[in-house]
Design a protein that fits this description.
Blueprint lengths: L3 H31 L16 H5 L32 E6 L5 H10 L4 H17 L2 H8 L4 E5 L4 H7 L3 H13 L2 E2 L3 E3 L11 H8 L3 E3 L9 E8 L4 H12 L4 E8 L1
Parallel strand pairs: 1-7, 2-3, 2-6, 6-7
Antiparallel strand pairs: 4-5
Helix pairs in contact: 3-4, 4-7
């Protein structure tokens, strides 16, 4: 039996936790007053992404990740399939405002909460429209893992986080899938945004390896990044994943 002293200690711990939680909530309220949330689209106060601006996210036909022509569900065309290539690409919307501003806020203004909001928008879209990739995952969820495109340690330390990891962790938790940082970036590269198509491919070549702590045999992978531009980074990551035993790789980005 628990003695009176033990009960008192537990009661004291409970009170301390309650006080700490109240203090945190109080600070959060103060921060909301000092730095009120504004919508990335219309700049209205109240939230980072208002319902009206969410509805204004521009969407386009999903495309084959090899030839970038329209493809049903974003699946790679049969004639475009390659042994070490992507099996499909799904993106939430077009890389235009307000989605572009939202991604920039996460990456450069460090508004981490927006990563969760973008994941919630993705989940709501999937629940409503049931895209092909969603049905693929539901067939065998235990055999799917989420892997973010990694940053080089120097850039991640400078930024304080990896935006693809934030999106991936949140998405994995809400889908009930395993999350793993199986890829590592072993070479510092120039920022892709400053380069053109061929330069991007050359810049990213040989930049990734598999972390030896992870076993990926017979797994399917949902590869997470914030933006698809030319696809060079995601293709290189896919090559490394498939060379190390992954069966199927779909890329998921917030924008394209």
């Amino acid at each position: 039996m628990r003695g009176a002293g033990g009960d008192a200690a537990i009661s004291s711990q409970t009170r301390l936790l309650r006080f700490a939680r109240n203090d945190i909530m109080g600070w959060m309220n103060i921060l909301d007053i000092l730095f009120p949330k504004r919508c990335v689209g219309c700049n209205k106060f109240g939230s980072y992404f208002c319902p009206e601006c969410i509805s204004n996210i521009k969407q386009d036909n999903l495309v084959c990740p090899k030839c970038e022509r329209a493809a049903v569900g974003g699946a790679t065309h049969p004639v475009c399939r390659r042994k070490f290539g992507l099996d499909g690409l799904w993106s939430l919307g077009v890389y235009e405002n307000p989605l572009r501003r939202a991604i920039a806020k996460v990456k450069y203004k460090r508004v981490r909460e927006l990563a969760n909001i973008l994941v919630d928008i993705t989940i709501e879209y999937w629940a409503k429209y049931r895209p092909f990739i969603f049905d693929e995952i539901k067939k065998d969820p235990q055999n799917w893992i989420l892997v973010p495109v990694p940053l080089h340690w120097w850039r991640q330390n400078d930024r304080g986080f990896n935006q693809s990891s934030l999106i991936g962790e949140s998405l994995a938790k809400k889908l009930g899938l395993n999350y793993t940082e199986a890829l590592k970036r072993v070479r510092h590269t120039k920022q892709q945004v400053k380069l053109k198509g061929r330069e991007r491919k050359q810049n990213i070549f040989g930049a990734f390896e598999i972390d030896n702590n992870y076993q990926l045999l017979a797994k399917n992978c949902l590869l997470i990044d914030d933006v698809w531009t030319t696809g060079s980074t995601l293709r290189e990551c896919t090559y490394i994943l498939k060379r190390n035993g992954v069966k199927k790789v779909w890329a998921l980005t917030i924008a394209r």
